[in-house]
From TrEMBL:
InterPro entries: CheW-like_dom_sf, CheW-lke_dom
Lineage: Bacteria, Pseudomonadati, Pseudomonadota, Betaproteobacteria, Burkholderiales
Superkingdom in the source lineage: Bacteria
Region listing for Disordered, in residue ranges: 176-202
Source organism of the structure: Paraburkholderia tagetis
Protein name (record): Chemotaxis protein CheW
Length: 202
């Protein structure tokens, strides 16, 4: 498998290249108040705002440095599946289990939700076999995005699990459904007489 390798304070991490939509040069990031410190803000990509996850802040508690090798890597945010791969496989081979599978929803057909990862030293790719990775032997419940590790002549490299980067609380902040601005617009459409003392009047 092909991986994009990046570094944080000398430690190497790897992103599955199949999950990468595009690698962009560093560009201005518009900060947003009220988000966790590792959400650096948003960038404009092809006319749409894309949230930026600062991996240095997430992993080390410091902002990413502006280096020649610092990149913005676009990936699709995919929430962890409610059922595992085994369940999907069983449903394909056993029709009796299909009835228990949840029906598709409108969100299943929605465009992918994109995030940009702010990465230092993200200029190199490496091919690693999936079976070269093994569990690190240390549980990281507060950093579920840290996957198994592999080793080579240069030391360890750790697989970053994109689907575990955001928890549900942060997803609700970045991708509100319905969008929060719609509520504001609805309130703005009301006539001035509809609001008095913080409530609607008849």
């Amino acid at each position: 498998m092909l991986f994009l390798v990046f570094e944080l304070d000398g430690e190497r991490y790897a992103l599955d290249a199949r999950e990468i939509v595009r690698v962009l040069p560093l560009q201005p990031v518009r900060a947003f108040a009220g988000t966790p410190p590792y959400i650096a803000g948003v960038i404009d990509h092809e006319g749409a705002p894309v949230p930026v996850v600062d991996m240095a802040m997430l992993a080390l508690g410091r902002p990413a440095r502006t280096l020649m090798s610092t990149r913005l890597v676009l990936v699709d945010d995919k929430a962890p599946a409610a059922c595992g791969t085994d369940a999907v496989t069983r449903s394909a081979t056993n029709p009796a289990t299909t009835a228990a599978m949840p029906a598709p929803t409108a969100s299943d057909n929605a465009p992918p939700r994109r995030i940009a990862l702010l990465l230092e030293c993200a200029t190199r790719t490496q091919t690693l076999a999936p079976d070269a990775f093994a569990e690190a032997g240390i549980a990281t419940p507060e950093a579920r995005w840290l996957g198994p590790v592999a080793s080579d002549a240069h030391g360890f490299v750790q697989w970053v699990k994109v689907e575990q980067l955001l928890d549900e609380r942060v997803r609700a902040l970045l991708f509100p459904d319905p969008p929060s601005w719609r509520d504001a617009d609805s309130a703005g459409d009301a006539s001035p007489g509809e609001f008095a003392s913080g409530r609607r009047t008849p």
